Sequence to fold (186 residues):
Amino acid sequence: MREIVVSGAEDERDLQGILALQSQNLEAALTPVEVASDGFVTVQHDLALLLEMNQQGPHVIAKHEGRVVGYALVMARTFDDRIAVLKPMIAELARASYHGAEVNRLRHFIMGQICVGKAFRGQGLFANLYHHMRQCHSSRYELVVTEVSARNHRSLRAHQKVDFQLLHSYRDPSGEPWELIAWDWS
Fold:
């Protein structure tokens, strides 16, 4: 069994590790077969933005032998206008409700992206990242929300296993189908 350490991102080296793993898993970097079978990430961050986000709520990372092999990004709502590709989700979130309450009236944040390196998938690391995130942030938040492309079947199944629930489905202006989902921490 490989020794994997899950913790909060602490320094620029950790953030560079996130960016390296992210670049390997962007949809544009993968073949159509890989996209269909292994999933993909959509947003490409830069170091400055990741650093700002991390200062407001530490990202969660998994490391093996000093290398980032998984991550889950914490995006406080103060970053809503900073990532253009997420603007349709932000608009949908403004109309979303959870158990009869407007999501925007609940203490929540956006899970900005989650990724596990190919060699480390299928070992429970996805759930471990989320459970560590809950340990670190549940005293401040009662709900975490995110969206997953409806084409990303692997990610949708993994989120369902963690206990994310569907808020609703929508299509962005380009026609991409999305599932807006939430995990209740209350």
In short: The two ends are 34 Å apart (CA to CA).
